[in-house]
Amino acid sequence: MRLRLFFLLVIAQQVASSNEIKFGKVSKEDVAATQHATYPQAEAAILHKKEWVRFSYQPETGWSQIREVHYRIKIYNKEGFEWATLQVPLYVSSSDKEDIGSVKGYTFNMENGKVVSQKLKKDGVFIEEVNKYSNKASITMPEVREGSVLDIEYKITSPIYWHIDEFKLQYDIPVNKAEARLDIPEYFIFKKYSRGTHPIDVEQTKKNRSINVSYRSTDGSGWSAKTTHKTGSLDFFENIYNIDVSNIPALLDEKYTSNINNFRTSMKFELASTRFPNSPYKNYSFTWEDVAKSIYDYDDFGNELNRDNYFDDEVDQLISGLSTDTEKAIAIFQHVQSKMNWDGYNGVGCSEGVRKAYKEGVGNVADINLMLTSMFRYAGLDANPVLVSTRSHGIPLFPTRNGFNYVVSGLQTQNDLVLFDATDKNAIPDVLPMRALNWFGRLIRDDGSSSQVNLMPKSKSLDAIMMVVDLNEDGSIKGKYRQQYTANNAFAFRNNYTSGSEDSYLDELEKKYVDLEISSFDLQNAENLSKPIMQSYEFEKEAGYENIGGKLYISPLFHLTTRENPFKMEQREFPIDYGYPWQDKYIISINIPEGYVVESIPEPIAVALPEKLGQFRFNISATNNVISASVETALNSPVIPAHYYADLKEFYRHIIEKESEKIILTKS
Length: 668
Hints:
By secondary structure, the chain is α+β, with helices and mostly antiparallel strands. The chain has three domains: 33-208 and 237-282, Immunoglobulin-like (Sandwich); 288-454, C8orf32 fold (Roll); 461-667, Jelly Rolls. It is built from eleven helices and 36 strands. The strands form eight sheets. The protein has an eight-stranded mixed β-sheet. The chain is globular and about 115 Å long.
């Protein structure tokens, strides 16, 4: 019986060994494969990913973190060639930085029925500075073709041992298998959090470990006391976490997604507390209130917010003679907005300090918006900073000081809280840049208390178009166009328009509407931010409608017709995020050419989304020689929950079908 059990164990070990993925050893079947077995449309796939994170200790430098990573990637077609270069972010600060080393790689291809390999050379690894806070290592594999299998290994050494990067388990290509192992000494207590819809298997075990340590020992007392440095060993246990997932589908980004990483299957470990020998227990677990108060206590936050002797004379002049709080707020906001230039860096702490930033006219987001808040307070207004996580930063899973990376100013009025961001020249009160429209922020008061703030706009941004179109006998059209943008729509237009010239803007407009010739362009209120954008022009188009058998077939919206459904996936696991609620209103008048009458026009329709989330109304009427079309589409909520995805997809189907219906004119 024991002999039989021994043989069974040997066989099990051999099977496990044969299934183990070894760097530099690939199967002929993997290299020869021409498409993914489960997802044949995939352009590439991660056949295997393995990570091992562990803590290292050196008596001279203390703790550090080591992360070893192995990727095995299959390239199926040319669209997958972007996976031939692996991008690895590296943290940098004034005193610490992460280093990458032990980079190895092979590209495997089929040649004459055999697997051949090409080794990664030193010139395939390139490290560049991204900004003052981070570097990026690029690993570019050689001889990549359709069908290549790439094996890549590297090791990151980080002095930032208290922060463990998220274990990313889902990508925009399928993942056949992903494994991760994390070895945490008993002195560090981490909480684990998962995101995404796919289950993650986590197995926890323990093992013993010993490290060499140095310490000081004192013999004797008084004048005769002698201190010596000694070395010894320290025994402790480690918590071992093994993460294992298989057959994870690609997470495909789709239109109107805030940040796809918010919904990616992944596992995050966050430091909760430390418990070192002969040292007090330290708790790092926070509530959001704790996070807000700790940030307020930063020298580069609260202290900077309380400085006011560098601007007092100028603010006194700005508000002199102004009687209302609104007038004072607008004057101060516009002053900061015009004087200060954003350096492009986010952060909840000042970079240069408000005094230096004000003097030089440039600073990061905290320099500018803490300065703005301080000026509001100096003028007697009820203002407080509001912490934000930008859309690119993601939605925090749990209370952590790293959860916020941006700050705006919140001004309390009699009726509501008005948000200000002076980093953008085209922003207006309560219209934040899209980067800051990320669900919820947290307002911090000077007494340390805080409260949650809804960052999403409440009122709809309007896009209103009036168009008059004349039909010519040769099939061409000629018309006049007038458009109005408000709120976030106006803000987005101004940023787009001011990024180039008028000629480049008109060129893009003519390309967008295909063969449209624009003349007599006029733009109003581009710089008057308090008023809506108004643009108007005249246009001509050669092929404006169809003449088939003497009948005229006309699309009632012409070049404004919605032709494509933005939602193409069968189902969606994450919300639809427009950023802000909006309303499009089109009023179009079509002058019927002489000698023609209306044979048929599309029937009116009204479609509504559940819970009053949106509506579409379409109505066409004909009176004498004029056809009038009124079309309205509105989304009343900035975010539509994922379970309404099928309804929203159907909503757009109705829009496309109705707007594609033709008006038919026949000779009288």
